[in-house]
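As a warm-up, study this chain.
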Amino acid sequence: MLPPEIKFTKTRIQEQWVYTFRHEDLGAIGRIRLKSTGQNTMINLDVTGDPNDPMTARRREIFEPLGMRIANEMESIVGRGTEKPIPTPQPIQPKTRVESKIMQCEKCDAYVAMLIFAEDARTPDRLEDYARMMYPEYSKVNLPTWVIGSTLDNSENPPAYILKVWPEREPVSILTPDEFNPVINKIQETHCD
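Now compare it with the structure written out below.
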């Protein structure tokens, strides 16, 4: 029933069953929440991400038709409820601490770039998870921003997945520090030129 690029997990969070859907490239795209409301079960669909993030629209395009199809199939099997739906609150998710660093101009100390360190991101979809979580911060600081994943091996100059997310998004790259550091150095060195 699910496209091969989408997987899901099921967890119980605050008296709700939560089915979280992940896309192999976009990371978490949405979830279906089921909560008992007496004799009926409330079905909620949540698209993942900040409404102002352009990537949320992409996640919505993929998740909403899938989520609606699943919800409609569930209703066709168990029947439509008779009670008036009562909105159920979103379960509280634990906060994730994400390391980031603001880079400064070497001459005037102005802020020139932001780096987000995705400590457990060894795949492009995990980079997207960090980009989604940090959208409110990097859109507010309005600096060129990259999400840098974990190193992919133990070599002397280990590569990592890197995703430029702001001001324009670029495709995911695999770069070593020797390849990426000159990009940041150039921004720092040429800011005042």
